[in-house]
């Protein structure tokens, strides 16, 4: 167990293919908090053919957003678990302004607040190129050409605006997502450190 800074409540936001899943796990591990990816939770439920999986399968496969009520309830349940008491890193949530309001209400009810919002920027062309590659490598059913377009369009329309809200609150760390994974990781830790957000132990190599 690593000792904790006072709290480590982070969001990682970026377009599809920005590398947020990978970077999110690295940051969460360093701070000793769980990385919670709503996309991963939905995919695991679809793969396991659970009730939730059945409910969301066609939505996820079309690249559309799962209804806020369902998604926000799922995130609340996860954040109420003991391992998320010192903090968490949310990847893929909130994804629109309604979910921002839901998360705000939840955190306020617990007298908690976010510490930072990590914004990973990559140009649209690079996003598309990475997703095409991932389609070949991983065969994710929502990485088809048409569904990629839909997910990126939803990102630009629904998700990008949440950054305006968090920017006004002074929470956003803008990180250039181009470069090697290690370069991007180093940028994230440097930006967090500027805010005094430093993991108790140095991040594992
Ligand atoms: P990507 O960022 O590459 O689209 P994710 O793994 O974050 O992949 O999400 C995959 C899919 O899961 C989304 O296209 C959407 O259908 C669903 N999903 C994930 N997070 C949310 C959310 N916060 N709200 C609604 N739907 C979500």
TrEMBL record:
Residues reported to bind ATP: 17-22, 134, 179
A single GO molecular function term of this UniProt record: AMP kinase activity
Keywords: ATP-binding, Cytoplasm, Kinase, Nucleotide biosynthesis, Nucleotide-binding, Transferase
Keyword field contains Zinc-finger: no
Superkingdom per UniProt: Bacteria
Binding residues annotated for AMP, in chain numbering: 38, 43, 64-66, 92-95, 99, 140, 151
Positions of region (NMP): 37-66
Stored InterPro entries: Adenylat/UMP-CMP_kin, Adenylat_kinase_CS, P-loop_NTPase
BP GO terms, sorted: AMP salvage
GO CC annotation terms, alphabetical: cytoplasm
Enzyme class, first EC level, given as a word: transferase
Reactions listed under catalytic activity: AMP + ATP = 2 ADP
Written domain comment of the UniProt record: Consists of three domains, a large central CORE domain and two small peripheral domains, NMPbind and LID, which undergo movements during catalysis. The LID domain closes over the site of phosphoryl transfer upon ATP binding. Assembling and dissambling the active center during each catalytic cycle provides an effective means to prevent ATP hydrolysis.
Described function: Catalyzes the reversible transfer of the terminal phosphate group between ATP and AMP. Plays an important role in cellular energy homeostasis and in adenine nucleotide metabolism.
Protein name: Adenylate kinase
Biological source species: Agromyces archimandritae
The encoding gene: adk
């Amino acid at each position: 167990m690593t000792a904790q800074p006072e709290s480590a409540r982070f969001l990682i936001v970026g377009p599809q293919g920005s590398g947020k899943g990978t970077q999110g796990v690295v940051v969460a591990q360093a701070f000793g908090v769980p990385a919670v990816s709503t996309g991963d939770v939905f995919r695991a439920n679809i793969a396991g053919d659970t009730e939730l999986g059945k409910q969301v399968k066609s939505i996820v496969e079309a690249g559309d957003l799962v209804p806020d009520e369902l998604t926000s309830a799922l995130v609340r349940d996860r954040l109420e678990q003991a391992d998320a008491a010192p903090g968490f890193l949310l990847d893929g949530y909130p994804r629109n302004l309604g979910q921002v309001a839901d998360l705000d209400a939840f955190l306020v009810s617990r007298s908690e607040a976010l510490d930072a919002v990590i914004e990973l920027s990559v140009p649209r062309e690079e996003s598309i190129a990475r997703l095409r590659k991932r389609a070949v490598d991983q065969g994710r059913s929502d990485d088809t050409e048409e569904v990629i377009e839909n997910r990126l369009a939803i990102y630009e329309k629904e998700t990008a605006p949440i950054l305006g809200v968090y920017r006004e609150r002074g929470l956003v760390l803008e990180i250039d997502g181009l470069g090697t994974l290690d370069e991007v990781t180093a940028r994230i830790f440097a930006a967090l450190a500027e805010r005094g957000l430093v993991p108790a132990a140095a991040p594992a190599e």
